[in-house]
């Protein structure tokens, strides 16, 4: 697989009203993403509600995405958990159904020390014949993987090819960019920081907003990577209110609400996530109307 860059969509997992996976809507969503010229697909991440998918369901979602994609784009499948042993098994599942890489979230709840991060990711990456993307998101995991740990993994574990950095600490992200080895990608994990991270030398983003506006957001990312900052800034600020609206409540509540308003999916989530409040839904609808999405 070539170096990861550009826009990867952190795909929502559509559910039917009865809570089962809506395969038809997922296939349609994947097809729309591909035709909108994003660069790669990311099923079963935080936006895909992986935390409430069973192992069998996670494998099935990845399988559907791989099948619908038919080799057109790289598929980076979320397989990380807070258990090293479980992460290995889920990563093997992703490899078996044809994913190109695994997205490995930093272990949540356990709060490992830096050596724990290193040993966890090294063990998972080396157990499976698949590329691996680290995912640092302290707001969800309650612990921050420091740049020196990320860089150590990038240097010492051959199949670790990228990091999705959602710490929102620009100095930390720039430290990784400055010292990263050749071929290692630094991807934004925060939509609104994509432009500044790319201008600092980053390689792209794994995004929530590209579920709703894949074509436009991918254009913004490509413009930034090409150095066309005028165009990138124009699109960035056009979409800025939607970037913020997607976090009125916990992700993916707002993006699923928006996609439901757009007629793409049913507004169904897995507990403990619940549907968006009426007040926030009204604000989201206003943002979508301004962008002519509803």
Give the arrangement of secondary structure elements.
Blueprint: E1 6-10, H1 23-35, E2 40-42, H2 55-69, E3 76-78, H3 84-96, E4 101-105, H4 114-127, E5 131-136, H5 138-141, H6 147-156, E6 160-165, H7 170-179, E7 185-188, H8 194-199, E8 204-207, H9 214-225, H10 229-245, H11 253-261, H12 278-290
Parallel strand pairs: 1-2, 1-8, 3-4, 4-5, 5-6, 6-7, 7-8
Helix pairs in contact: 1-2, 3-4, 4-6, 6-7, 9-10, 11-12
Strand content: 5-15%
The total of helices stands at: 12
Number of strands: 8
Rg calc = 18 Å
* Ends apart, CA distance between termini: 37 Å
Q: Could you say which structural class the secondary elements and strand pairing correspond to?
A: alpha/beta
The fourth-level CATH homologous superfamily is Aldolase class I
Determine the CATH topology: TIM Barrel
- In total, how many domains does the architecture comprise? 1
Question: Largest beta sheet, briefly?
Answer: 8 strands, parallel
Helical residue percent band: 40-55%
Mean pLDDT: 97
Q: What is the overall silhouette?
A: globular
The residue ranges in which pLDDT falls below 50 over 5 or more consecutive positions are: none
CATH architecture: Alpha-Beta Barrel
- Secondary-structure element order, as H and E? EHEHEHEHEHHEHEHEHHHH
Strand order of the largest sheet: 2-1-8-7-6-5-4-3
Q: Give the CATH level 1 class.
A: Alpha Beta
């Amino acid at each position: 697989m070539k170096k990861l860059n550009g826009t990867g969509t952190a795909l929502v997992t559509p559910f039917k009203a009865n809570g089962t996976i809506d395969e038809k809507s997922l296939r349609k969503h994947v097809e729309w993403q591909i035709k909108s010229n994003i660069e790669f697909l990311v099923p079963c991440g935080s936006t895909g509600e992986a935390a409430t998918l069973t192992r069998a369901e996670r494998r099935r979602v990845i399988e559907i995405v791989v099948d619908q994609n038919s080799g057109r784009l790289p598929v980076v499948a979320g397989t990380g958990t807070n258990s090293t042993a479980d992460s290995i098994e889920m990563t093997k599942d992703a490899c078996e159904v044809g994913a190109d890489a695994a997205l490995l979230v930093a272990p949540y709840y356990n709060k490992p020390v830096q050596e724990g991060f290193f040993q966890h990711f090294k063990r998972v990456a080396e157990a499976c014949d698949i590329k691996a993307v680290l995912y640092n998101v302290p707001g969800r995991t309650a612990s921050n993987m420091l740049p020196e740990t990320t860089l150590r993994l990038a240097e010492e574990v051959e199949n670790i090819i990228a990091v999705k950095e959602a710490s929102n600490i620009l100095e930390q992200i720039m430290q990784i960019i400055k010292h990263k080895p050749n071929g290692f990608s630094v991807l934004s994990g925060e939509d609104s920081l994509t432009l500044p991270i790319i201008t600092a030398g980053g390689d792209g983003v794994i995004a929530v907003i590209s579920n709703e506006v894949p074509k436009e957001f991918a254009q913004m990312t490509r413009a930034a990577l090409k150095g066309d900052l005028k165009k990138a800034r124009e699109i960035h600020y056009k979409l800025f209110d939607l970037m913020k609206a997607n976090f009125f409540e916990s992700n993916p509540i707002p993006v699923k609400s928006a996609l439901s308003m757009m007629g793409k999916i049913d507004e169904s989530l897995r507990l403990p996530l619940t549907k968006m409040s009426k007040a926030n839904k009204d604000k989201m609808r206003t943002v979508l109307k301004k962008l002519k999405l509803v």
